[in-house]
Amino acid sequence: MKASKFRENFWCPHFLSTIGYDSIIQHLNEGRKNCKEFEDFLKERAVIEEKYGKDLINLCRKKPCGQSEINTLKRSLEVFKQQIDNVGQSHLQLAQTLREEARKMEEFKERQKIQRKKIEVLMDNMHKQKQLQYKKTMEAKKTYEQKCKDKDDAEQAVHRNANIATPKQQEKLFVKLATSKTAVEDSDRTYLLNISLLEKIREDWQNEHIKACEFFEIQECERINYFRNALWQHMNQLSHQCVVSDGMFEEVRKSLEMCSIEKDIEYFVAHRKTGQVPPAPIVYENFYNSQRNAVPGRNPGPNMGRRGPPPIPQSTLGIEEDNDYSLVTECNIISNQHQWN
Prior knowledge:
341 residues, disordered C terminus
């Protein structure tokens, strides 16, 4: 692995500043949030796949589709519905796989969180110690500087009053000077002690900061790699689903290749035919011929399957009149004669 980039680029010259560390932590939190978003995405995609799979299965099992078809096309439709049902089942399996991938992402995310927590707690304590010791050191420095000023004032007072002060006053000035010198020495030792403690804490903090940067960089590399592989795996799963579905669709296509229009027609004819003789035509039947044949005592003659054309009136042909056939005009004359008599 290349030299750590985090340990070289996340410092700040201000002694109490944690901006470099905070920037890394913020980035890691955003990465964890991104993992959570992908985890939720997989879960929602699983819900979609499950619903789609169940809808396909219900569609195949409840919705009729060419149920009255016969022979080869019927077999193709049966294969079609079975394969669509299989596609639905495969989507249910994909939904389960996606839930499993989401669970793995959640476990990875939580595992990194636990690992980070130890480092974060340690670094937070280091920051607090550094801030607390810095505060004590600055207070000791302030006290030391004030004691130095008091000593300087005492020395100046001794020099100013060397010729004008009484012995008793000079004695007081010297006592005050001696006291101020002692106070300076005490505050100086305290100040130096705090500086020493602060430096030790600073060194410890710096070492821990370097270790934290290296650890966080390794962890971030692992997260990016895991996230990338998870996305890759997700694409492979979707591609596999397409391949599986296409294989099932290919079974339908193979079945359709076996479908024969001629065989289906022949099958229908063989099982549903009703006969080969068409009905005879409806012919004209002369009403008067039927009445004449119905006169009592008259031989109706042979029963012909079909009647011939109606007879042509003889008056129109100019031949001898047949008493068995009368024109409409003659019938009317006979009827009138009966009325007159």
